[in-house]
Known about the structure:
Layout: E1 7-12, E2 18-23, E3 28-32, E4 37-42, E5 49-54, E6 60-65, E7 69-74, E8 80-86, E9 91-97, E10 102-107, E11 111-116, E12 122-127, E13 132-137, E14 143-148, E15 152-157, E16 163-168
Antiparallel strand pairs: 1-2, 2-3, 3-4, 5-6, 6-7, 7-8, 9-10, 10-11, 11-12, 13-14, 14-15, 15-16
Amino acid sequence: TNHSNWVNDLAWSSDGNRIVTGSKDNTAKVFDLTTNSRISTYTGHDGGIYSVIFDKTSEHVLSACSKGKVLYWRAESGKTVKELANQRESIYHIAALDSAEHFIFSGAMPSIEMIDLQSGKIGKEFISKCNNLSLAVSNDTRQLLTGDSQGRLRLVDIESGELITGFTVTP
């Protein structure tokens, strides 16, 4: 039931009874915290998994890997529903927007992209100058905060795509 390599990310289900883990061993696992048991293991990625998140129903999981794929799969069975993105570069982080109908992902690419969960299509694209290693969405889902490989933080208005403010973190 354990991963054979690093656990890179984990997330809670909306009811707090399950967690999903994503590992460098190319697998994601869903665990039931009430019984301390593994529910499923997902093996659809061909690279280490950097980010995992449940959808709003917690019936499905989105996972992103070092080979640039974002996959949508069933939490109970570990079966793939659809591939949502296939980039050339690693994807490091996924975050949910507006009741999780849209997701944003970032990685080793000079952009952050929004995916519509139903259509699987890339919507908005937020351009930056270097790799985006992390991102966070505000509680009201109106703003996006990004952190990049150059130590810069940027706060962006999600609706307009306009930069609100940006600064560099120094030691």
